Amino acid sequence: MHDKHRIRAGKVLIRGIFVDVWDPLGIIDEPTAQDEYDSYLGGMYKLLGRSASSEEIIAYLREIETDHMGIKPNEQVLAEVAVRLKAVRW
């Protein structure tokens, strides 16, 4: 049971960074769209769980933006997101 709570807590923290910092689709002010990036939480949780490098985190987010969303990544934002995600502790 403890693991479920830890996983949930981690995903909540990641979700906050996805919406507040990454937000490539601009959904921060859309209350009904706050779950827009939830399908990417598991992948990021796994990356962070194995202490992935900033480069790996950036590559994961870049792939999402280019391959899944069809948008051009903002490299400065990706770098900031990686810093914030690497600082997450749960």
Summarize, please:
The chain has 4 helices and no strands. The chain has helices spanning 2-22, 41-49, 54-69, 75-86.
Radius of gyration: 13 Å
Q: Strand percentage, roughly?
A: under 5%
Question: Termini distance?
Answer: 15 Å
Low-confidence stretches: none
Overall helicity:
55-70%
List how many beta strands DSSP finds: 0
Task: Give structural notes.
With 90 residues, the protein is an all-alpha fold. It has one domain. Helices cover 64% and strands 0% of the residues. It contains 4 helices and no strands. It has helices at residues 2-22, 41-49, 54-69, 75-86. The chain is globular.
Please describe the topology of this protein.
Elements: H1 2-22, H2 41-49, H3 54-69, H4 75-86
Helix pairs in contact: 1-2, 1-4, 3-4
Please describe the structure with a list of short key phrases separated by commas or semicolons.
4 helices; mainly alpha; 90 residues; 64% helix; single chain
